[in-house]
Amino acid sequence: MKPTILLVDDHTLLREGLQVLIEKFASGTVIGQAGNGAEAVRLAGELNPDLVIMDITMPIMNGIDATREIIKNNPDTKILVISMESDRSFVVDALRAGAMGYLLKDTLCSELEVAISAVSSGKTYLPQKIETLLVKEFLQCIPEDLTVAYETLTARERKILQHVADGKSLKEIGSLLSICAKTVDNHRYIIMNKLNIFNIADLTKYAVRHGITSLTTN
Question: Model-level pTM?
Answer without folding.
Answer: 0.63
